[in-house]
# Entry
Amino acid sequence: MTPAGEQAFAAGKENRSHYSYESEARKLAPDEIERFQANAKAWDDWQKRPPGYRKVVLHWVASAKKTETRARRLATLMEDSAHGRKIAGVDIGRKREPG
# Structure
């Protein structure tokens, strides 16, 4: 490979963050955790979920570019968790509702 190709390949490896499995685990902000914990039923369900599911869902919540989108995703997560459901798109066979 030429030096330019090696440089492009190295730069591509550093910028891989589109998928949850290619990036470090994301975290909720302290105020988001407080809101989540305030809903005991949702928090209890969340704590029972396997680490792989939590990593994918946290990536989905935290990768939002707008704060409104992140807040809406967190609300969806809390709502689904409170009802013992997985997030649509992560739960095979369940479709995400529009909006």
Summary: Helices lie at 3-14, 30-38, 40-48, 51-62, 67-82.
